[in-house]
Amino acid sequence: MIELREVVAIRGGAPVSARIRAGEVARLEGPPPACAALLEVIAGRRPPLAGEVRRDPRGAAVLVRAGERLPTGVDAGAAVAVWAALAGAPCGAGAVPGDRGVAAAARGAAHPAPLWLIDGALPATTEAMIQVAAEAARGGAGAMLWTAGPARGRVDQVIALTAAPAASPPPRRPAPRSAPRPTPWRAIGRFALAAAAAPSAFGLAALVAAWLAVAAWVVAAHQGYWTAAGSAAALAWVARLGAIGAAVIAATATAARARAAPAWPMMLRDAGAGPLARVATGLAADVGGVALTAAAAIVPTLWLARGPLALGAVLGASAARAAAVLGAAALAGAVERGRAPAGTGALVGVVAAVAIAAL
Amino acid sequence: MRGAAPAMVAAWIALAAADARAAVPLEVHAARGLGGLVPADGLEVIAVDVTSGGDAPAVIAIELDGEPAADGVALAARGRARVTVARRVPAGIATLPAATVRARAAGDAAWTATELPPVAVAARPIVVVTDAAAAVVPPLDGWRRARGAGAMVAITPDAALRWPALTAVGAVVIDRPAAALPAALARELTRHLASGGTVCRADATAAEPRCVRAAAIAVPRTRQPGDVGPPVRTRGRLALALAVAMMIAGALRRRAPRAAVLGGVAALALTAIAVIAIPADAVIARGVRAPAGGGEDWVVAELGASELAALPRRLDGAVWLEPSGAVDGVIRLDDPTVDWPGSWRVRGFVAVDAAGWAGALRRIARPAPELP
């Protein structure tokens, strides 16, 4: 599966030689910087300082770094499926929700024989997926190499590393440019659908619907103040307030999600996916996660069809407000993932969406 | 080229003939006032009769002095339609000038018009309903002057009388018992009595007519704006139901994912279209109703129609409807329709058991008046 010949991954490190076959699970022991550097070399993210790495051309290296976690608010199975698809594995596993989905996705990623490279301790959801992948690897579907961390069961061999104490951790680098890989649109679409149908999406939609109810009651109570008594502008106010509230909720929730899983974009990058695929995956999570919210937000705009607005104008306003909610979420997620200060993503998304929805 | 000119002339003649065939021949008659006068501060009631000479049904429009008075009046082939409209009598005027009533069928360019002669305006006139005006009217002249009535006019019992035409008259005098009057006239006079008018009975044995008048009731006079609060709050309840449905779907998402997704999407769609089932009766009424006899109630109300109301909306009953605060314009007496949102003034009669907008009016336990 992979063979290391006198490989030096980090300055001051000792050369290491080893061979990991398909169906094997190996553990890497040594200073964490040296282990991380060697895993990056094996994954092809950086060249070795010395020595040679021979890889099975059929295998795709999936590097999982310490602390990396799957995106929140989306079923882990769907996230693993798109992750594996971006790493080059076929996306036949699909997005099955729940633990069963994690297993299915992990097995899907195990074809054709991925080499799982696990660096350090992982959050619970990711760890669960890794455990399933390790079982699959022991069954012959790929191989796995992990560093010292939580107990993950039997290992077939232990690779020990030694390095100078002053060795510094390798800088994190993006994946080297490789031959362009087709963007797995189907997997990304399934990921968006999984995000749209996640329990958290229903929760957000319920929150927006409750906000609509509050807006309706407040507007009805202020008839004659905000609007002329008997005027259908009251319904327009409900629609406008509903869209603004939905945009605020969507932007805040998306920014909070992006904040909760800051390493998810890096995981996508480590999978070797191109920028288009990574942006599309991020948008799929953000926009899909608030699709139900946007649908709930345009309900009051559709109600305007009973008022003075023509059907075409109602449909146009509905599309604009749905775009405002979705755009707020996309903007908030993008800004937050861009390492903006806390809350900036939500703020930017909210301001943009309010401006659009208030039109 | 030589044969083109005759062909064009023939075509023009054919087109003209086609136009002539399409036009519906109408005959228009109209009458106004009470025996040649109208009461000051009252209503000028104009009855328009339109007779069709066409062989096909038609829809006609009627104008009064160039102002639309009735539109969409159905007229059967060689049939007849009667439309009653009214206008407020301008204050401080002694004579209403001549008026023009015209009608035409939909699609026709030409109008058929009739001229109404000028009519005098009298302050609180006395209207005497009698067959023997020469014997009944002169003895009442002293009584009229004592009441300060401006004029006295006699009409026959078989005259087509509408209660709005009696608005602002000083009194209506009858020369026989109510049971001896034609039923239609008795009903209109009872309505006049219930609306606050005075009806007197002239008796040869008495020096003065014996008059009756219903107890006065306070009626609303301020505008009633429409109210969109109820339908908006109903939409708020729908949104709350959607929130509950979404929470349930979210809770069931892990156990029954497909059913949860279908349920959530269905709840969204139902909430969006359930507004169709929300009653569009966003018309509110403020006013009073009092027994008027004959199975009717006299109603005085201000009606507020919101922009969410299903308009136009025709009101049941014999009511007189006009925008609140209006001092001019044509009132369609036989087709009281709320055409646009706003505040409307309603005067008239509805069935005792009338519900809807009339059901919201405050009922006053005033004894039903009876003709003398």
Question: Please, could you describe this protein's structure?
Answer:
- The complex is a heterodimer of chains A (359) and B (372).
- In chain A, helix 6 (199-221) runs antiparallel to helix 7.
- Chain A is α/β, with parallel strands linked by helices.
- Helix content of chain A is 52%, strand content 11%.
- The model of chain A is unreliable at 90-99 (pLDDT under 50).
- A 5-stranded parallel beta sheet of chain A has the order 5-6-7-3-8, with helices on both faces. Chain A has a 3-stranded antiparallel beta sheet with strand order 2-1-4, covered by helices on one side.
- Chain A contains 13 helices and 8 strands.
- Chain A starts with a strand and ends with a helix.
- Chain A has helices at 32-43, 76-86, 99-109, 124-138, 185-196, 199-221, 233-260, 264-270, 275-289, 291-297, 299-303, 311-337, 344-357; strands spanning 2-8, 16-20, 25-29, 50-55, 61-64, 115-118, 143-147, 157-160.
- Chain A has 2 domains: 2-160, P-loop containing nucleotide triphosphate hydrolases (Rossmann fold); 198-357, no CATH class.
- Chain A is elongated and about 85 Å long.
- Chain B is an alpha+beta fold.
- Chain B folds into 4 domains: 4-118, Sandwich (Immunoglobulin-like); 123-213, Rossmann fold (3-Layer(aba) Sandwich), CATH 3.40.50; 229-277; 283-363, no CATH class.
- Chain B is built from 6 helices and 23 strands.
- Chain B has helices spanning 4-22, 133-136, 141-147, 183-194, 229-252, 257-273, and strands spanning 26-32, 37-39, 43-52, 58-64, 67-75, 80-88, 95-96, 99-105, 112-116, 119-122, 126-129, 152-155, 171-174, 198-201, 210-213, 283-293, 296-305, 313-314, 318-323, 330-332, 337-338, 342-351, 362-363.
- Chain B has a 5-stranded mixed beta sheet with strand order 12-11-13-14-15, covered by helices on one side.
- In chain B, strand 4 and strand 5 form a beta hairpin.
- In chain B, helix 5 packs antiparallel against helix 6 (257-273).
- Chain B is flat.
- The mean pLDDT of chain B is 85.
- The A-B interface holds A 97-98, 197-203, 205-207, 209-210, 212-217, 219-221, 223-224, 228-232, 234-235, 238, 292, 295-296, 299-300, 302-303, 305-308 and B 225-230, 232-233, 235-237, 239-240, 242-244, 246-247, 249-251, 253-254, 257, 260-261, 264, 268, 271-272, 275-276, 278, 280, 282, 304-308, 341-342.
